[in-house]
Amino acid sequence: MLKPVDLLMVGVGGQGTILASRVLAMAAQEAGYDIKVSEIHGMAQRGGSVVTQVRMGEKVYSPLVTESGADVVLAFEKLEGLRFLPFLKPGGIMIVNNHEIPPVPVLIGAAEYPPDILERVRTISPNTFVVDAFDIALKCGNPKAANIVLLGVLARNLPIEREIWEKALSARVPPKFLEVNRSAFAAGYEYK
To answer: Given this model, what pLDDT does residue 147 score?
Structure first.
């Protein structure tokens, strides 16, 4: 019997959340899960929110994750992680990229980027991993692979074998970017 898992991937347009969700979906299917995915792009091309809801299990009927229903929230950007923290169930896992992308109200001076996001997240979710994914991806050869670093951290926390993840990554990433993304995935998977 496959353990059901509900998760959210949240970020800002251009961070690679869609690619990460497609690798996840392929890995889950390969592992025998029924999986449903819902993507909300909003104004993604203008730096707006991107939210991917994923539900996987023996049999899944809806892709929508309820408030306090997510086993995992994977945040590609800190403020987005804070915004979607209410979806995390008690005892769930929060994975947060330690990266800031100021939203439009901050850019035009109408609001301030909260300075204490990580403290607020950790207060509500003690099971939080903070990852400097951008820096790790840079060391792997391309800062744009931060999404795959985060996917590696997620993969370590899901009941799908590493080899299945690597196969899905190879199928979804263009060959010219595959080696750097393999390095980024491994760095995330081994992140402590």
So the answer is: 97
pLDDT at 92: 97
Give Cβ neighbours of residue 3 (< 8 Å, ≥ 6 apart): 57, 159
Backbone CA torsion sign across 136, 138, 140, 145: positive
Residue 121: other Cβ atoms inside 10 A: 21
What is residue 22's three-state secondary structure?
A: helix
Q: pLDDT value at position 1? A: 73
Overall average pLDDT of the 144-161 stretch: 97
Residue-range domain boundaries for the chain: 5-189
1 sits in which H/E element: none
Distance CA 105, CA 96 (A): 22
Q: What are phi and psi of 142, to 5 degrees?
A: -160, 115
Whether the per-residue pLDDT at 104 is higher than 90: the answer is no
In the chain, the N- to C-terminal Cα span, in Å, equals 29
Q: Quick check: pTM over 0.85?
A: yes
CATH of 5-189, one of 3.40.50.720, 3.40.920.10, 2.60.40.10, 3.30.300.230: 3.40.920.10
Query: If DSSP states are collapsed to H, E and C, what string results for 37-97?
Result: EEEECCCHHHCCEEEEEEEEECCCCCCCCCCCCEEEEEECCHHHHHHCHHHEEEEEEEEEE
